[in-house]
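haha ok so turns out i had the wrong file open the whole time. this is the CORRECT one, sorry everyone. sequence first:
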Amino acid sequence: MPTNLGNMMGIRNQIRDRGLHQQLKAELVEHIWQKYRNGQLYV
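then structure:
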């Protein structure tokens, strides 16, 4: 539980930032593609 409400709200706003959201989503998709190439799990 955050001890500072201001910090919590700032973090919440960063998470809700559309540009950051799109960037994180693209990175997640790329990460998944790297792990599952050609139907194979690459660890």
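The two ends are 34 Å apart (CA to CA).
again sry for the mixup
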